[in-house]
Amino acid sequence: MSDIATPEFVEETIEKYRRYINPGLAALMDFVGFHAVEWQGEGMTVRDTTGEEYLDFLGGYGVFALGHAHPRVTRAVREQAERLPLSSRVLFNRPMADLAERLADITPGDLQYSFFCNSGAEAVEGALKLARLATGKTQIIGTLGGFHGKTYGGLSASGREVYRMPFAPLLPDFVHVPYGDAGAVAGACTEQTAAVIVEPVQGENGVILPPGDYLPALRELCTERGILLILDEVQTGFGRTGKLFACQDCGVTPDIMTLAKALGGGVMPIGAFVGTPAVWKAFEPNPLLHSSTFGGNELACAAGLVAIEVVLEEKLPENAAAMGAVLLDGLRAIAAKYPGIIIEVRGKGLLIGMEFTERDIAALVIAGLAQQHILAAYTLNNPRVIRFEPPLIVERRHIDRLLHALDESIAGVVELLES
Fold first, then answer.
1. Do the domain assignments include residue 2?
2. What is the residue-wise DSSP string for 115-161?
3. How many domains does the chain have?
């Protein structure tokens, strides 16, 4: 490791970002204090090329629910890689069949059939296509502030203009209504409405929780009018909010559910959309109408199978609920100390946001945490909000360290603002 544990290696890596990847991203990461090159991960910890350790309270925006490099998942992937890494695409694929069966077992209601892809955005694309195919209708209702990925379909469904407008015109027949307002959804419905797509908690918009009756009202509305309900659980799925799936908190079952992030166990990229038998019939006349070269490959499915078992056996949803309550209490105590710059702390389970009065304040606080070797980041659709989304294996001692560092970071920003 001696050849990489040098300042020159770091500078060379950052320069390659500037020259070959994304100059703006390199500048942004440098500004918020992430002037290091990641090299190794284990549990709650990320190590850089110099051996410095960082406590991860971002968790890859939900990817590392099991922590970094969970040994059971990495072992399963290694064994599968030695046997058959990718599918031939013409013979039956047992890991994919096993994973689809497992998802049918654990997802709510009568969700049964799965299509596997490589990301949350791809899962959303497939869900939107299936909704139009199954209903013969075209209109999709999304929500303001909603985030469903940055592919054309996902971006068309999302409700943040700063990401949408540079790529306009987007797909037709997408409308957006205020989040948490079932009446607004009802008012937007027409005879051509195929589906409503919504997150149980808006993560990228700053961790926005809807009223408790919101999802049940949407379910009732969609059932009454013959409209499909798509729940985007890409970020909330597999225990993040304290339930295996966030929709279980209010007893709602969608017609289609999108999944990704934690499904890969923090080791492999994988996404899926899962639907009911009634909806899936639309694929029967042409089973290859929607396909993916790499989707459902043996490596990713092997990771997904073990990831699910780890989530269940290690009771990670329960830990998310318990540690999330501790973290929320601690963050709210800190917010009470700084009412002039912190607006609110909100969240569910281990999906928590702290909203500041200004985005620059949030960035400075993130930089202060980075200086203390703690990883956090703001949310895409609301950069005033720092998101705390640690692996679901987080312990009280990790939370105590975060809270101490956060208090120090905010105090430093306050001192800077007053000077």
1. no
2. EEESSHHHHHHHHHHHHHHHHS--EEEEETT----SSHHHHHH---H
3. 2
